[in-house]
Amino acid sequence: MAPPQPPMDAQARHAAWLHDLRNAANGVGIALEMIELLLQHDDRPAVVRSLARAQRGCAHLLALVRAPIEDESDASS
User: 33-69: string of b/e by CB count within 10 Å (b at 16+)?
Assistant: First the structure.
């Protein structure tokens, strides 16, 4: 079992958040590009799967964007 990690400072948390945000945005972009290619090949079932993947990615992006706002409002209470 790995030893517990010390808590991250604000700068490290922000860097990790930006990394997660960039990865989520890239995932959505890839899913949308796949939809375009799959439509060209008339692969409707794969289009549906890619749309679902893009939708999940957008939900994840929204959660990431909202998280700092919720954390900041908790800190100001």
Answer: ebbeebeeeeeeeebeebeebbeebbebbeebeeeee
Phi, psi (5° rounding) for residue 66? -75, -30
Per residue in 13-44, pLDDT (tens digit) is 888 899 999 999 999 999 999 999 999 999 99
Query: What are the DSSP calls for 1-49, one per residue?
Result: -PPPPPPPPHHHHHHHHHHHHHHHHHHHHHHHHHHHHHHHTT-HHHHHH
The structure's pTM equals 0.70
